[in-house]
Write a structure and sequence with these properties.
The protein is of the alpha/beta class and about 375 residues long. It has two domains: about 5-140 and about 305-320, Rossmann fold (3-Layer(aba) Sandwich); about 145-300 and about 335-350, Dihydrodipicolinate Reductase, domain 2. The chain has helices at about 5-10, 35-40, 55-65, 75-80, 95-105, 120-135, 145-155, 185-200, 305-320, 325-340, and strands spanning about 20-25, 45-50, 70, 85-90, 110-115, 135-140, 165-170, 205-210, 220-225, 235-240, 245-255, 255-260, 270-280, 285-295, 350, 355. It has an eight-stranded mixed beta sheet. A six-stranded parallel beta sheet has the order 3-2-1-4-5-6, sandwiched between helices. The protein has a two-stranded antiparallel ribbon with strand order 15-16. The protein is globular, with a radius of gyration of 22 Å. The two termini are about 30 Å apart. Bound molecules: nicotinamide-adenine-dinucleotide. Nicotinamide-adenine-dinucleotide binds next to loops.
Length: about 375
Amino acid sequence: MGRSRLERLLSGSTGTPSRGPVTVGLVGLGYWGPNLLRVLHELREVSVSWICDRDLERLQRVADRYPAVTPTCSFEDLLTDPDLDAIVIATPVFSHYALASLSLDAGKHTFVEKPLAPSTAQADDLIARADERGLILMCGLTFLYSPPVREVKRLIDVGDLGEIYFVSSSRVNLGLHQRDISVIWDLGPHDFSILMYWLGEHPSRVNAVGRDSVVPGIADVAFIDLAFPSGVLANVELSWLAPSKLRRMVVVGSEKMVVYDDASPEPVRIFDHGVVYQDPETFGQYQLSYRSGDIVSPRLDVVEPLALELSEFVAAITTDERPSALTRLAREVVRVIERAETTLDAGLRHEGDRTVSRPSIVGG
Ligand SMILES: NC(=O)c1ccc[n+]([C@@H]2O[C@H](COP(=O)([O-])OP(=O)(O)OC[C@H]3O[C@@H](n4cnc5c(N)ncnc54)[C@H](O)[C@@H]3O)[C@@H](O)[C@H]2O)c1
């Protein structure tokens, strides 16, 4: 996931040695799968040979648009095809571990949509299986390929923002209630991966409150506090219950502040604003000076993050360069979600005298 790799991808050259196209099968054609399919289909280095979904109607609908791709309801067909190099998994979270481990055991390079697995232990197990077999395992953390997110990372790394004090994030909309997972499993991977990528560290403390406002047992709103070893604090608000869609993160540093708003035509705005504390000359007399300078909106590359991400997966296969840092980050995302979930229970709804228990989210 090094910058040089990204630069090569942006300039259209992956550094990939010449060989035939990487053959890919995609499982899961619900909301997200068709996006992956469109992008895979457009990649020069890829030949999509299978699409798979156990919902026949869905499968047929997508197959009609891609007549050269073989449709199947059986995942087994992908596993047993000796000519298939890689499998891309876009099924619900709780199927990730089972499908990804079958894929790796069948010797296929494997791309799993976020989150990597439904538990840290299962994420570790997938990483070990991939390592043992010398296969590429990658998790879809699409926002890490988004130009605004990359730009904020650059600003932090070059020190333009000064010391980072805190980050606040809102990812809310009147969203689709998931039937089997909380809003943290659904939306949290985006914020947690972005935060760890920006800050280059993992949170040492995670605490969440939330509630199941609509469907008993499924948290549809959560407020998560994170503390990082460097002292940076973060607050992440996640919700499927909001009057309007917000995808907004604010980074406050000692020198400058940045607003990253994914829904805005100016997704990154840098505020040369701050407050300077001057040491008191006498006890109790401190002075603050307020700075309110320029607001700059940098020009950003126009590239589709998903195309960069899948190109990186394909390049990793053809160059045999494992995206280890990215996979470790994906594993940490699962750990943070798990930690947040364990602190959630107290906030969930009570119906009469009966406490509504959440279905187990970590397990088989
Ligand atoms: N990167 C992103 O921005 C992003 C956005 C949305 C969803 N996602 C991820 O994509 C994945 C899928 O989410 P979705 O919203 O498309 O889910 P979905 O429920 O809409 O679709 C899942 C599909 O998988 C199929 N399926 C399930 N188990 C199967 C099996 N064993 N064999 C064959 N088909 C099977 C279902 O029939 C369904 O069509 C999730 O991991 C989600 O977190 C990522």
